[in-house]
Amino acid sequence: MVSASGGSGAGTGAGPARMWRVADLGGLELFRATISEFEFRPHAHEEFFLALTEDGLARPTYRGERHVIGPGDVIALNPEEAHAGGPPAESSWSYRALYPGPELFGKVVAEFPGDRRGMPAFGADVVRDRAVVDRLRRFHLLSESVQANRLEREECLVEALVLLVARHSAPVRAPRSPGREPGAVRRSREYLREHLDRNVTLEALAAFAGLSPFHLSRVFRSAVGMPPHAYQTSVRVRRAKSLIRAGLPITVAAAEAGFYDQAHLNRHFKRILGLSPGRYARDATDG
Q: What is the distance in angstroms between the CA of the first residue and the CA of the last residue of the chain?
């Protein structure tokens, strides 16, 4: 992980810019910043450029026109596509960006029928799509935490990019059906149950299941009713519950079940079971 103000961050207003790479996603580069009194000069990237506005306004220029970008808007630019600009005078712009390369988008395109060799092409002025925005933002936030669930992070990215290509690339197209793949789903569930203490990656899980990460994410959700990371969390809570019932201290149960600490267990235990581990331990003892 590399932190930097970055050349594009010079002149930022509220707080320093940050750029870093996600090593286990092929070095995918991420960036976030709040800028004011600053305007990017015309430039282009070798990779795709996806920028999600969290707050404020921007008036970037690309595809021959100046655009007005607000909260929830996504800029989706193709490789080598020139762009410039920044927030209006006396305004600020807070945004999160990622720079996926052709290799990553090649995996996305493999989820669509027909010719899978070409890259998607984005041509809209701005992408306004709540489902894409929510997943991109969640992915970005999870990528800032060393304790993040890697399965959840990768699932958010997979879903965001598939939706982005399906709904907003030219031409618009439908991804292939996820199918049932019962054997792959069964193997995936077994793997997650047997590796509760590991921060499993979607790539490792998919390799074990015998599917691509993108396809497994969609197949698993379709068959199980929840994504792999949610299933893993539910199994971890189930395991912690049984350990607490057996009399183990909550801190020990948390570690044995694969949680970072007791606070991590508390959060998920209550979300799934409706009460805290401490209350469950007292009730189990009283009973």
A: 49
